[in-house]
Amino acid sequence: MDYNQSQLNARYDQDDKNEQVYLLFEHRIAQDLSMYKPHERQSIESLEDFIIESKQLYQEFEMSGDVWDFSDDVVEAVENAILTCNQWDLERQQKSGGYNG
Q1: What is d(CA 15, CA 18) in angstroms, rounded to the nearest whole number?
Q2: What mean pLDDT comes out for the span 32-54?
Q3: CA nearest 78: which of 50, 39, 38, 44?
Q4: Global pTM?
Q5: What b/e readout covers 66-94, taking b as 16+ CB neighbours within 10 angstroms?
Q6: Do residues 92 and 100 lie in contact, with contact meaning Cβ atoms separated by under 8 Å?
Q7: Which of 65, 74, 91, 97 is deepest in the core (most CB within 10 A)?
Q8: Nearest to 70 by CA among 80, 81, 58, 62
Q9: Predicted local distance difference test score (pLDDT) of residue 1
Q10: Rounded-to-integer distance, Cα 65 and Cα 79, Å
């Protein structure tokens, strides 16, 4: 029974680790995309270029000595990153009292 429990614990620990690393990957995508100006984030051409570069960059995402391939997850992460960047823009606007894009 102890062996089965340890295997189950290891699986859940790995699942938790995978989830945490994925969240960090999504955050990094958002940080990268936030370097674009708001109007650039609305350009299909800019986003296509960003996705191509990100697929190459995140094909080997290293964290804590392990390597993940998130290249298939880039498009979904970019979709989420657009929303995150828009939220960050709103927060910056509210802090500064105006639009700075």
Answers
A1: 5
A2: 94
A3: 50
A4: 0.76
A5: eebebeebbeebbeebbebbeeebeeeee
A6: yes
A7: 74
A8: 58
A9: 55
A10: 28
Structure tokens at 72: 């298939």
Residue 86 is predicted with a pLDDT of 94
pLDDT tens-digit series, residues 47-94? 999 999 999 999 988 877 888 899 999 999 999 999 999 999 999 888
Residue identified by tokens 């960050």 is 88
What are the DSSP calls for the chain, one per residue?
-HHHHHHHHHHHHHHHHHHHHHHHHHHHHHHHHHTS-HHHHT-HHHHHHHHHHHHHHGGGEEETTEEE--GGGHHHHHHHHHHHHHHHHHHHHHHHTS---
CB atoms within 10 A of CB 33: 22
Contacting residues for 57 by C-beta, under 8 A, at least 6 apart: none
Longest dimension (CA), the chain: 62
Q: Among 21, 34, 13, which residue's Cα sits nearest to residue 73?
A: 21
